[in-house]
Amino acid sequence: xxxxxxxxxxxxxxxxL
Length: 17
Description:
- The protein is mainly α.
- The chain is 59% helix and 0% strand.
- It contains one helix and no strands.
- The protein is elongated, with a radius of gyration of 8 Å.
- The N and C termini lie far apart (25 Å).
């Protein structure tokens, strides 16, 4: 489970903006 951790991390941090 690597994508899950990355997704959670990206969601927690304002990286999408």
